[in-house]
Amino acid sequence: MGEGKKHERSLSSDLLKHPSTKRAKEVDTTENPFRRLEERIEAHTSSAKVKPRNVLHWFRSKDLRAEDNRALNAASQKARETGSVLLTCFLYSPKDLQWHGTSPARSDFMFECIRLVQEQLGCLNIPLVILTAEARDKKGEQLMDFIKKHDVSHVYANYEYEVDELRRDLDLLDRIEPDGNVYFELHHDQTVVVPGTLLTGSGGPHKVFTPYHKSWLSTVSEDPSLLDTVGLPEANDKAARQQVQELFDYQKKTFPSLPKDKLFPSDEDRKRIRGLWPAGHTAGMSRLREFLHKKCDTYAKNRSIPAEDNSSRMSPYFAAGVVSIRQVLSTSSKECNEGSVDFSSSGADAGLAAWIREIVFREFYRHMMVVIPHNGMNLPQNLKFDFVEWEDDEEGWRKWTEGTTGVPFVDAGMRQLTSEAYMHNRLRMNVSSYLRTNLLLDYRRGERWFAENLVDWDLCNNTQGWEPSYTVFNPISQAEKCDPHGDFIRKYVPELKDVKGKAIFDPLNRLDKEEFKKLGYPEPHVDLKESKERCLQRHKHDMADADP
Ligand SMILES: Cc1cc2nc3c(=O)[nH]c(=O)nc-3n(C[C@H](O)[C@H](O)[C@H](O)COP(=O)(O)OP(=O)(O)OC[C@H]3O[C@@H](n4cnc5c(N)ncnc54)[C@H](O)[C@@H]3O)c2cc1C
Predict the structure, then answer these.
(1) Which residue range or ranges hold the Photolyase/cryptochrome alpha/beta domain (predicted)?
(2) In this structure, is the dihedral angle defined by the CA atoms of residues 154, 157, 161 and 162, taken in order, positive or negative?
(3) What digits encode the pLDDT tens for the residues 71-93?
(4) pTM to 2 decimals?
(5) Atom 2 of ligand 1 has which residue's CA nearest to it?
(6) ipTM score here?
(7) Could you report the per-residue pLDDT of 104-143, keeping only the tens digit for each?
(8) Ligand 1 and 103: CB distance under 6 A
(9) Do the annotations mark residue 358 as ligand-binding?
(10) Is 432 annotated as a binding-site member?
(11) Is the CB of 327 under 6 A from ligand 1?
């Protein structure tokens, strides 16, 4: 960085493309696709005006279940009321997986869940057809072809809150509205409280977590019906099945395969990851009960101690919508809170209250996605961070991805990611801080690496988890606090398994030279103190007068 030279805005590769900060502001204000879609849906033709023919539920990658699926249930009711046949589809776009960088683990999990829902619906005589749109901009066209070919009059789906997905739904409205003979209905299904609706005293949406959390708790306490669940769709009768037999034949023949770069590198990897993350609603619910009855009690105390593995590991089931959040909360209320929906620290045990707080974080991130839509456009929420000049340290990048930075806690986290397609939250906080501040690499590279490797990748949580801030973690003191006996480090960094005592947190400086050499563990890639100073200076220099 030239002395005194002001950096305009960060450069980034094609994969990390993002619009200008000015354009982001337009999307947040005048264009706001969520608001536009809500208005269009509100003004859309009434269902009663459309002559009922076949009814379609359109699954998305975030509602892959038949149980307590709001839009699917509404579609089923419509089909029953009008004596129509219920059809379902999933619109698959391989380019979407490539665009988002979705990992093989997440892609495989998604396909397995779809397969299971397909079987389950098949027993109810309801077909689930997978439509493939080769290009991302062909999705609307592909769906319209299906709608026309199969004489669909009513389409139901659950909202997705990211910019591209909102635009896709607006595109579908553009296609169906001119003829006026197809009705499109969207449901809020991903959260208990509808994103964008919790407001501050002055009437604007909450933008800070703590008051949002408080408001969320009182909203749910005052209206327990928010946790009501809906049942499975009603079966089509046998005659209906015969009517749509060609769709069953088609679905049997044409389950698509994943693109090559979304396949596991080996069968062994696939087996291991599938074993850790069994697909489907039943597996998700039994994991939930296991957590509620065996781990939840100690969650408040141990949630930041990764060696305890005390969290629920429900994230892949939430990210793909395999288990509904209402069902999770109503089960928690019935089985662990004597039927009460007061999940505050005075209304629930400490463990449950702390766990629900994390679920509320998930809700908050969906809320913030509609309040500040540019969150979903590869841009930081605080746009000033787009003016930071990042380093070009390819060796540091490689070491970070491999877990060979020479910082044991960071390396343990990165190796957990490689072996489990998952990383404990405390490690996610540390490895992201290390990449963005100590290595001073564009945080978007790390964000994408997570997408490419996590089984629970979720755009709202990942993007906002990676949101840059002024905080610089110290991964040595973090390890001393959160992994006090070094057990987590020993588990994932075998070179250090025999290191005794506190030397495990900083082996280069706490062992004598010879001892360190014998370990075969790398020296730190950067000095933590110096690199922190460099980062703070860089922030100061590049952001002080930035005008996003
Ligand atoms: C840099 C970074 C990236 C992240 N990327 C993702 C991601 O791609 N997908 C993802 O689901 N989570 C992400 N998180 C949040 C969190 O780390 C994971 O949700 C959590 O580790 C999953 O483990 P669990 O299911 O055992 O969580 P538990 O502790 O059991 O929590 C229950 C649920 O609450 C939600 N939750 C927990 N912590 C958070 C949090 N900090 N923010 C938002 N929701 C939370 C998750 O849905 C989680 O499954 C990220 C966090 C950071 C710091």
Answers:
(1) 54-192
(2) negative
(3) 999 999 999 999 999 999 999 99
(4) 0.97
(5) 465
(6) 0.99
(7) 999 999 999 999 999 999 999 999 999 999 988 899 999 9
(8) no
(9) yes
(10) no
(11) no
What would the pLDDT profile of 389-435 be if each residue is shown by its tens digit? 999 999 999 999 999 999 999 999 999 999 999 999 999 999 999 99
Ligand 1 binding pocket includes 409 (Cβ within 6 Å): no
Is the distance from CB of 45 to CB of 183 less than 8 angstroms? yes
User: What is d(CA 320, CA 331) in angstroms, rounded to the nearest whole number?
Assistant: 19
Tell how far CA 454 is from the center of its chain.
10
H helices of 63-176, in order, are: 70-82, 94-100, 104-122, 139-149, 163-176
Centroid of ligand 1 to alpha carbon of 102 (angstroms): 16
271 CA distance to ligand 1 centroid (A)? 24
Angle at 497 between CA 294 and CA 504, to 5 degrees: 95
Ligand 1 atom closest to Cα of 319? Answer: 11
| Other CB atoms within 10 Å distance of the CB of residue 155 | 24
**225-280 confidence digits (pLDDT tens):** 999 999 999 999 999 999 999 999 998 888 999 999 999 999 999 999 999 999 99
